[in-house]
Amino acid sequence: MKILAFVDLHENQTAWKKVKEKAKDVDVVVCAGDISIFEHRLSHFLKELNNLKKPVMMIHGNHESDSSMRKMCRNLDNIFLIHKNRKVLENCLFLGYGGGGFRYIDKEFDRVAKSFKLAMKEHPDKVVFLVTHAPPYNTRIDQIMRKPCGNKNIKKFVIDSKPDYTIAGHIHECAGKKQKIGKCLVINPGPKGKILTA
Q1: Residue 92 β-bridge partners
Q2: Class of domain 2-197 (CATH, top level)
Q3: Domain coordinates of the chain in residue numbers?
Q4: How far apart are CA 141 and CA 157, in angstroms?
Q5: Distances (CA, A) of 19 to 4, 14, 25, 181, 187
Q6: Taking every pair of C-alpha atoms in the chain, what is the biggest distance, in angstroms?
Q7: What is the pLDDT of residues 52-104, one digit of tens each?
């Protein structure tokens, strides 16, 4: 499968045109949050995402709330909210954890990670995508002025559980950056998006 991942759109129309163009050639779209600026025009962009006519794996960022996202997506058939949840689609397993982005430690993620580990055991043959808004700690995608500001719990999960991909954002300066942690490709796809293959 071909997956288009993007994050931190923040209503940028130029970036949105790029996402729409790239979405024509993929099977699935993944949004790692912050499509709005504090929920301004959130409903509009969710409807636009739905109109891509592709399955969209979606989490909220720190500019959206989980409750608003759920309310606005209630009748949008192509959007799958995966915050604290999972979704299997063909040969892929998507695990989602939205919001945040400002904490080194997130014990709630550890609680949710138990269900993620169980899902990975139940689907050992799937390509695993961990989708978070906050980046894992001390990676190329969490640096501000050469100092790490990401999440240590997410980093530990990546090291211990070894998903195939980790898609995250929040740190705009790191858009487009990536690195390998073991076999896992950690990437901030940025607002214009990157295409991944599973």
Answers
A1: 127
A2: alpha beta
A3: 2-197
A4: 16
A5: 8, 9, 11, 27, 16
A6: 43
A7: 999 999 999 999 999 999 999 999 999 999 999 999 999 999 999 999 888 99
